[in-house]
# Entry
Amino acid sequence: MTSISAPNPYATVATGLQSSSARVDRDATAIAASKGGDINPTDVVSLSSDALTFKALTKVAQTVDQNSQRLLDIFA
# Structure
């Protein structure tokens, strides 16, 4: 019989947060380096998108915690 394994949700969240953090650093550096108010709108949109991604991933982690607690309550 073949077993199916799912990825660890915490590892998935951690990887996503690291990627999002790296993009925030890149975009913030590009915005800070712009001269004379010539900010690339793509960097601003990307920075906003990264903030939403970060919030979404933290919500996923909270949901995983809640579901784990419910599962423990069921087996207790």
